[in-house]
Amino acid sequence: MDKQLLQTAYSPEDFRQNGHQLIDLLAEHLDKSLNKSSSKVINWENPSEEYKFWNNFLFNGKPSDLNNEIIKRSIHLHHPHYMGHQISPVAPITGLTSLLNAILNNGMGIYEMGMAPTAMERVVVEQLCKEIGYGKKSDGFLTSGGTLANLTALLSARKNRTGNDVWENGTSNKLAIMVSEEAHYCIDRAARIMGLGEKGIIKIAVDEGFALKTELLEQSYKKTIHEGYEVIAIVGSAPSTATGIYDDLETIGDFAFEKGIWFHIDAAHGGGAIFSSKYKSLLKGMKKADSIVIDGHKMMMMPSITTALLFKEGRDSHNTFRQKADYLLQDSKEEDWYNLAKRTFECTKYMMSLHWYTLLKIYSKSIFDEFVTTLYDLGQEFGELLENDPLFEIAVKPMSNIICFRLINKDKDLLSLNKINSTVRQKLLEEGEFYIVQTKIKDIVYLRATIMNPFTTEEHFKKLLDNIKRKAFPLLNL
Asked: Domains of the chain (ranges plus CATH)?
């Protein structure tokens, strides 16, 4: 068989040439985005038209135009006007570690398929546990995203707290977890995947500041037990995704200890604050948690998708999945930290430790302090601007870089204001100069900004608010 195409596809020289061109293109993109010479964050297109473009491009487009079109039609996270979802504008060096991962492609299920990244992962986990305040018995691993990490933590809680080998024997017990009504939807999803059902998800109301009402814990717990459920875990949010508000982790931790239930913290967004000298206190009580989730791709400058799942007792990170595959997993007398497929859902996982380790090595942990502290400071700054503007109302004083706000008018009812805020958001999206999202809290539609770019400034905030007002004036009859 003629292998000409394969030889071309694997050509080191072609790779070198294409790689140099792509790096130059991405460097130019970063320069335009960071310095705001590019006027748009997003070139919005509706789904059907976007599909038509790419379907046509596959057959008619020039290969040399491919990367340009991908960049043009992607959202630009490095632009200071990006204030949308909780995805980090990555440190450019992690683009290079991503390239290293893609070419080496070590699967990491077992040690011999990823020696360097496996050892690097242990170093990273140890550093994270140290920052949390865990002892020497702590452990953990990296996995593919907060959703998977939260599910794994709750499976660990079930294994630890039921006293039954559910993995081998299953269970017919009525199990339940306690969680804030403002917790991320993946907690609800995880509980349902585990078979807990709707009644096994005990949602605790939040206070006026959208933090879990800790004074309701005892009452909810007793009611759940009375109904025949076994409570295996309670989850604290650090912070909740919708509002950016941190729960009272210390009080929740004390309650969990008193009741003998597993305490898990979903710190996917805000766990990076462990490195912030100014904002670490938001996580007070975190070392009481049995498990903690921290996303690298949210507040730690890394590409999607990489998450740390950390355990106060390291043995819990080994006990969740007990399974033997003779060709892959071999029994050992001691806990072999270096065979990661024994501890995670993934058999094959990408070399995500490269991102964490490289950032620590090149810039030290101080880079995370600067990043988180800067963004949380900007959250406070934007919140103050909104509080001082009579056309806007904030849902709650921000604790992080997430701010929920809305246009208000005393002459408009709730339904009208909800529609006006949604319409303005859609107009912003279609225009593309700024990118923010929206959320609904207690039937109220809020505009939601997550400040992810450390080079966003007060001037950008003022320009965003002016833009919103221009779009809102005709709708508010002002």
From this structure: 12-41+76-92+364-478 (3.90.1150.10), 107-363 (3.40.640.10)
Residue 30, amino acid = L
Alpha carbons 266 and 178: distance in angstroms, whole number: 13
Half-sphere exposure of 378 (CA within 13 A, CB side): 25
Q: Which two tokens stand for residue 393?
A: 């109302």
Cα 453 versus chain centre, distance = 15
pLDDT in tens, 242-287: 999 999 999 999 999 999 999 999 999 999 999 999 999 999 999 9
Where residue 432 falls (left for φ over 0; alpha for ψ -120 to 50; beta otherwise) is left
Edge-first strand listing for the sheet containing 307-311 = 139-143, 307-311, 291-295, 262-266, 230-237, 175-180, 201-204
- Helix 93-104 with 353-363: angle, nearest 10 deg: 140
Report which residue type is found at 290: D
At 334, list the tokens.
């001691």
Model pTM score: 0.94
pLDDT digits (tens, 9 = 90+) for 408-440: 999 999 999 999 999 999 999 999 999 999 999
- Collapsing DSSP states into helix, strand and coil, what is residue 238? coil
HSE at residue 25, side-chain half, CA atoms within 13 A, is: 15
For every residue of 82-138, DSSP letters joined together read B--SS-----THHHHHHHHHHHH----SSGGG-HHHHHHHHHHHHHHHHHHT--TT-
**Adjacent-strand bridge partners of 404:** 448
Question: What's the angle, vertex CA 26, arms to CA 20 and CA 28, rounded to 5?
Answer: 105
- From first CA to last CA, the distance across the chain in angstroms is 73
